[in-house]
């Protein structure tokens, strides 16, 4: 492991030693290695960026800092002392506050009470003094320079305000280290500036801040040092002044795209899906693309770029304001998933447990869900026909289930995904939209799912695949559409798509070079 | 407090409070609809039938509300945490019959001791509910539906056809429901004390506020380190103790106690809480509101009698009230949400 921390003993003016340091922390969940080498040190009075692709292990690292996960190994020190957090309370007591992208406040409680839950100031007779609580909350907001009424309930607050409340809470807890996990993802420009002003003034008071973001302009604007992670491992730490965006991107993606996901060559046929100028206010804008038979088109980009929303609109789940969707030559009605299914479109959602499967039903029932009209005689489903159809499809997809009659919930993630695929394949679709095909699936089964998708394309099915995993995108796709903040920022063919070009289109602001 | 973090910019915090703030917070009061409804009901009834508000009439109204008020106070503790206890009627029945048995077996026992025994018995029954709900992690609705029948079954087995009458109990015990202090029957004062104590606990103590946090978002409460199971268990225990108190008072107030005492009461209690502005999904509402809800529901019965409305209409009217309460609540929260969105948009 190369260590390029150019400032560890440098002459920089930062205060004292690390407020927090995590060295070589590892965390596995069964066969899945979520974090192989989590290493980061945060000094008092600095803003430290943590960057990496989706799945680089940043979230796991944050959860370790927050006390939600317990590392299997590694050294974790706060203020020089070795610590082992049993729960969130331990982490808080050690002076660590974590602010998530979407904070969880108590909607029915007042803003002031949300700040002081469990440690409300007491007044006469040992009872909570609401007046003191409101006054102190007001003082906190005053210092932060934000106008939030401490007496209102938290319900209906904007995400930006919710984050400010979390920051106020952190200040009142006297946090030494503030971890901000993608805080700007849901904020507008003005809100981001306000947040940055608050972060800088906290830094100047000696708080160590860990800032996680995908937006390089923000990272370079705000942070003093940058730590890069890749594939669950620490790669390097740099002083912001000493590196360029290009160098950081290279370290984030710098890996050989393994020949793990070979897409077999398929004959590309006629255009199956044509999307023209699709827009939905505040979600996505002017989306145009097409997908042809036998082709795999990947929608790449960061989480929250609007990819799933486009897919849902195409399938008719969500509405759109403008634009046209043609499917196999005829216009598709908006907001009518049933019509999309009838026309031969299938949708494998990202969250298969909630949206793709009926977890308590048997494997057989799940596979034949889309077929129930074909299998019915006089409105009653023919049990034997159902079993036959299910048998055939789970054999073709090699679903590993103890029995067709077992509940889907007993299968592994990869096999559940195969059941979802089987469900759609059984109705012989012309287009399959697959959202994050291998999320939460272990490495072994991953390649099986990839082989399967590749097979489908080989049979002439058009595939629109949404994926946040760069190797998957680059290995599988014939064409890559990159989305950023609701727009398509690049269309790359197989030859032109490489880690740098995709990451660049997904992260750099307003299409320009960073 | 933490190290001062002074900001260069002058404060722009929206100043709450002031006269308009006070008026606004009055309008925001969740109990307001039930107060208005109660005032209207009493006023209209009084105008039609002035006898409605004689000292005796008022005393009857209060007496009728007393037991439901105590049960509603206990139920509020639970509903605020997104739980419920449907077995209160059965618990009340068991304790009321137990009170009759004790006095019949030991007529010289001090009245105070009977209260202690009754509340301890109720607390034990409540602890059974609390244990089942927190240990089995099954929704309270189902658990307490089960214990509703179990407790009632025990009562049936214990009582058989037997009933105890007021004559079996000391006169001083019955006098609690007859004698008044400052116009209030003694048992009503007990109920008011209970409501006040629960109100202070829920508004002014950290464990009390934890109950709101739990009901507002149980997962967030767990993540926050709030001892959810412990708080919920203790709420069930307290609710049981209050049902026990109500059971003893029931034996003082009413002539006979037997196998069917308190049957069906749980629905009146839940209705009282809901009408009083306690959100059925937890997180908001007050015990004062629930107590007022109890007063409203029991007053309607007397009102309809005073207005010579057919008694059969009574239940339909209670039902309409519940629906109205829920609709008012829903509309109010939608309006608040809309207002907040608009003011937010302006801020940006």
- Provide mean pLDDT of chain A, rounded: 85
| Beta-strand share of residues of chain B | under 5%
Distance between the termini of chain B: 30 Å
The overall strand count of chain B is: 4
Oligomerization: heterodimer
CA radius of gyration of chain B is 22 Å
Q: What structural class do the secondary elements of chain A suggest?
A: alpha/beta
Fraction of residues in helix of chain B: over 70%
Tally of structural domains of chain B? 1
Number of helices of chain A: 17
The CATH class of chain B: Mainly Alpha
Strands ordered across the widest β-sheet of chain B: 1-4
With strands numbered from the N-terminus, the spatial order across the biggest sheet of chain A is 6-7-8-3-9-10
Number of strands of chain A: 22
Domain module tally of chain A = 4
pLDDT < 50 runs, ≥5 residues of chain A: 1-15, 510-514
**In the CATH classification, which architecture of chain B applies?**
Orthogonal Bundle
The CATH topology name of the largest domain in chain A reads Rossmann fold
Radius of gyration of chain A: 25 Å
Order of helices and strands of chain B: HHHHHHEHEEHHHHEHHH
Could you walk me through the main structural features you see in this protein, from its secondary elements to its overall organization?
The complex is a heterodimer of chains A (514) and B (348). With 514 residues, chain A is α/β, with parallel strands linked by helices. Chain A has 17 helices and 22 strands. Chain A has four domains: 18-104 and 175-253, P-loop containing nucleotide triphosphate hydrolases (Rossmann fold, 3-Layer(aba) Sandwich); 106-156, no CATH class; 259-344 and 429-514, P-loop containing nucleotide triphosphate hydrolases (Rossmann fold, 3-Layer(aba) Sandwich), CATH 3.40.50; 358-427, no CATH class. Chain A has helices at residues 58-66, 88-93, 111-116, 130-144, 159-172, 189-204, 216-222, 245-253, 307-315, 337-343, 352-356, 363-367, 383-396, 413-425, 443-458, 470-476, 499-507, and strands at residues 18-29, 32-43, 47-51, 73-78, 81-82, 96-99, 177-181, 208-212, 225-230, 233-239, 271-280, 284-292, 296-301, 322-327, 330-331, 345-348, 376-377, 380-381, 431-435, 462-466, 479-484, 487-493. In chain A, the strands form five sheets. Chain A has a six-stranded mixed beta sheet, sandwiched between helices. In chain A, strands 16-19-20-13-21-22 form a six-stranded mixed beta sheet, sandwiched between helices. In chain A, strands 2-1-4-5 form a four-stranded antiparallel beta sheet, covered by helices on one side. In chain A, strand 21 (479-484) and strand 22 form a beta hairpin. In chain A, helix 4 packs across helix 5 (159-172) and helix 8 crosses helix 17. The longest helix of chain A is centred in the middle third of the chain and has 16 residues, at 189-204. Chain B has a single domain (32-329), classed as ABC transporter involved in vitamin B12 uptake, BtuC (Orthogonal Bundle). Helix content of chain B is 72%, strand content 2%. Chain B is built from 14 helices and four strands. Chains A and B meet through helix 2, helix 4, helix 5 and helix 6 of A and helix 8, helix 9, helix 10 and helix 14 of B.
């Amino acid at each position: 492991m190369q260590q390029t921390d150019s400032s560890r003993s440098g002459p920089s003016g930062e205060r004292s030693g690390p407020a927090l340091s995590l060295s070589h922390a590892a965390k596995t969940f069964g066969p899945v290695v979520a974090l192989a080498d989590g290493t980061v040190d945060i000094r008092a009075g600095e803003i430290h960026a943590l960057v990496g692709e989706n799945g680089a292990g940043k979230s796991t690292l944050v959860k370790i800092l927050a006390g939600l996960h317990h590392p299997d190994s590694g050294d974790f020190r706060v203020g020089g002392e070795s610590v082992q957090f049993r729960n969130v309370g331990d982490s808080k007591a050690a002076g660590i506050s974590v602010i998530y992208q979407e904070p969880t406040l108590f909607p029915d409680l007042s803003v002031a009470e949300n700040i002081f839950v469990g440690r409300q100031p007491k007044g006469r007779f040992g009872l909570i003094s609401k007046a003191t609580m409101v006054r102190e909350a007001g003082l906190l907001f005053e210092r932060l320079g934000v106008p939030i009424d401490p007496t209102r309930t938290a319900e209906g607050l904007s995400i930006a305000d919710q984050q400010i409340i979390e920051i106020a809470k952190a200040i009142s807890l006297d946090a030494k280290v503030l971890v901000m996990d993608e805080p700007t993802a849901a904020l507008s420009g003005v809100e981001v500036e306000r947040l940055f002003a608050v972060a800088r003034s906290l830094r100047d008071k000696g708080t160590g801040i860990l800032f996680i973001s995908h937006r390089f302009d923000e990272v370079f604007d705000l942070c003093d040092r940058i730590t890069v992670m890749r594939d669950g491992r620490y790669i390097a730490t740099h002083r912001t002044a000493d590196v360029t965006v290009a160098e950081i991107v290279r370290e984030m993606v710098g890996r050989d795209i393994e020949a793990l996901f070979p897409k077999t060559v398929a004959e590309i046929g006629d255009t199956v899906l044509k999307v023209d100028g699709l827009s939905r206010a505040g979600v996505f804008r002017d989306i145009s693309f097409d997908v042809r038979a036998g082709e795999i088109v990947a929608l790449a980009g960061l989480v929250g770029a609007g990819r799933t929303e486009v897919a849902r609109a195409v399938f008719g789940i969500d509405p759109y304001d403008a634009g046209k969707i043609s499917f196999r030559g005829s216009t598709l009605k908006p907001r009518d998933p049933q019509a999309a299914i009838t026309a031969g479109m299938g949708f494998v959602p990202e969250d298969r447990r909630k949206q793709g499967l009926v977890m308590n039903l048997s494997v057989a029932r799940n596979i034949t869900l889309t077929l129930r009209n074909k299998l019915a005689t006089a409105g009653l489903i023919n049990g034997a026909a159902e079993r036959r159809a299910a048998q055939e499809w789970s054999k073709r997809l090699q679903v590993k289930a103890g029995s067709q009659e077992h509940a889907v919930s007993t299968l592994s993630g990869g096999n559940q995904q195969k059941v979802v695929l089987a469900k759609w394949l059984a109705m012989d679709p012309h287009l399959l939209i697959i959202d994050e095909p291998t999320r939460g699936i272990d490495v072994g089964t991953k390649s099986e799912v990839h082989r399967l998708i590749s097979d489908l394309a080989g049979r002439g099915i058009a595939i629109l695949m949404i994926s946040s995993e760069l190797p998957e995108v680059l290995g599988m796709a014939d064409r890559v559409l990159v989305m950023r903040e609701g727009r398509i920022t690049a269309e790359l063919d197989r030859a032109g798509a490489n880690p740098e070009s995709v990451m660049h289109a997904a992260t750099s602001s307003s299409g320009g070079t960073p | 407090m933490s190290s001062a973090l002074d900001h260069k910019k002058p404060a722009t915090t929206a100043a709450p409070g002031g006269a308009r703030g006070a008026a606004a917070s009055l309008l925001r009061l969740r109990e307001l609809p039930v107060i208005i409804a109660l005032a209207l009901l009493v006023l209209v009834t009084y105008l039609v039938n002035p006898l409605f508000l004689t000292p005796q009439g008022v005393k009857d109204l209060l007496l009728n509300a007393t037991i439901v008020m105590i049960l509603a106070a206990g139920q509020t503790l639970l509903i605020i945490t997104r739980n419920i206890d449907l077995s209160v009627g059965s618990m009340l029945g068991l304790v009321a019959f137990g009170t009759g048995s004790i006095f019949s077996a030991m007529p010289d026992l001090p009245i105070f001791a009977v209260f202690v025994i009754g509340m301890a018995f109720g607390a034990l029954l409540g602890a059974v509910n609390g244990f089942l709900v927190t240990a089995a992690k099954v929704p309270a609705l189902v658990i307490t539906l089960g214990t509703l029948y179990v407790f009632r079954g025990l009562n049936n087995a214990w009582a058989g056809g037997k009933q105890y009458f007021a004559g079996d109990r000391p006169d001083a015990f019955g006098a609690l429901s007859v004698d008044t202090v400052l116009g209030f029957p003694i048992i009503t004062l007990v109920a008011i004390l209970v409501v006040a104590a629960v109100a202070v606990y829920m508004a002014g103590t950290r464990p009390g506020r934890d109950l709101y946090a739990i009901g507002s978002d149980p997962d967030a409460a767990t993540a926050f380190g709030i001892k959810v199971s412990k708080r919920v268990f203790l709420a069930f225990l307290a609710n049981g103790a209050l049902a026990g108190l109500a059971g003893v008072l029931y034996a003082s107030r009413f002539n006979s106690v037997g196998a069917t005492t308190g049957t069906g009461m749980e629905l009146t209690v839940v209705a009282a809480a809901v009408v009083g502005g306690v959100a059925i999904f937890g997180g908001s509402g007050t015990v004062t509101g629930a107590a007022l809800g109890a007063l409203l529901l029991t007053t309607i019965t007397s009102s309809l009698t005073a207005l010579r409305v057919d008694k059969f209409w009574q239940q339909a009217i209670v039902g309409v009230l519940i629906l109205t309460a829920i609709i008012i609540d829903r509309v109010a929260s939608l309006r608040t949400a809309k207002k907040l969105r608009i003011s937010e948009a302006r801020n940006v």
